[in-house]
Amino acid sequence: MTKKLIVANWKMNPANRKEARRLFRAVKKGVKKTKNAEVVACLPFVYLPMLKGLSLGAQDIFYEKQGAFTGEVSPLMLTDLEVKYVIVGHSERRMYFGETDEIINKKIKAALSAKLKPIFCVGESIGEDKAIILEKQITKGLKSISNATLRGVRLASSKFQISNLIIAYEPVWAIGTGNNCSVDETMSSMLLIRKIISKLYGKKSASAAKVIYGGSVDSENADSYLHETGIDGLLVGVASLDAEEFIKIVSSA
Ligand code: PGA
């Protein structure tokens, strides 16, 4: 059985190092014996160098290696901190920071080239046509991502393996609202996503791609997603800030 991926997205929390340490330690202790899941903690940049013992992820990156880009953090700075994953294209970044599909595409390329695994977020807003939005976001986000083109990216060259890319289906209306997407609807979205991947990379890649769900996941509903073989894991926001709640989610894997 392949391990489920349970990703904590702390967003811009908690407010200080003391609380960050306390939360991280409690989670680490609580998931120590977990065998069926890989737990990834996506922390604010400032907490990444001080916390060890779970797979680490960042919540964003910039697409250049180094240089005059005030305020930005490069993929190489993250790999130097032993960070393995990076969230790219979260709806909050699209919404509040003007991230376009083109910027997201550059960030995914830069992440892959630096051997970071991107957690590429896609999903429709309320009232939008899901099939059209997913097709647009995925096709543009993965534009010219293949072994050949990645060798042309300015960072270290690396092989593109579909298993190094995680797609997170996060309908915008489900994020932080308590209104999680039903398992049936999530499954049908995952099918749509795999169809798009199949068009881009072939059938084999479509089944090898990791697709996870995010949006108001908690300890009550986590179980129902994790029992579906087509759902490879969960991306957890609010509920990841409560150690007890998050540990319960992980244990349902
Ligand atoms: P939520 O956030 O679990 O608080 O809905 C999920 C996310 O934004 O990744």
Q: What is the strand content?
A: 15-25%
Q: What oligomeric state is this?
A: single chain
Q: Kindly state the number of beta strands.
A: 8
Calculate the terminal CA-CA distance, rounded to whole Å: 11 Å
- Structural class by sheet pairing and helices: alpha/beta
Widest β-sheet, arrangement of strands: 1-2-3-4-5-6-7-8
Helix coverage percent of residues? 25-40%
Q: On the 0-100 scale, what is the average pLDDT?
A: 94
Shape: globular
- Biggest sheet details: 8 strands, parallel, barrel
Description:
The protein is an alpha/beta fold. About 40% of the residues lie in helices and about 15% in strands. The chain has 10 helices and 8 strands. The protein has helices at about 15-30, 75-80, 90-95, 100-115, 130-140, 145-150, 185-200, 205-210, 220-225, 245-250, and strands spanning about 5-10, 35-40, 55-60, 85-90, 115-120, 165-170, 210-215, 235. An 8-stranded parallel β-barrel has the order 1-2-3-4-5-6-7-8, surrounded by 4 helices. 2-phosphoglycolic acid binds near residues 217 and 239.
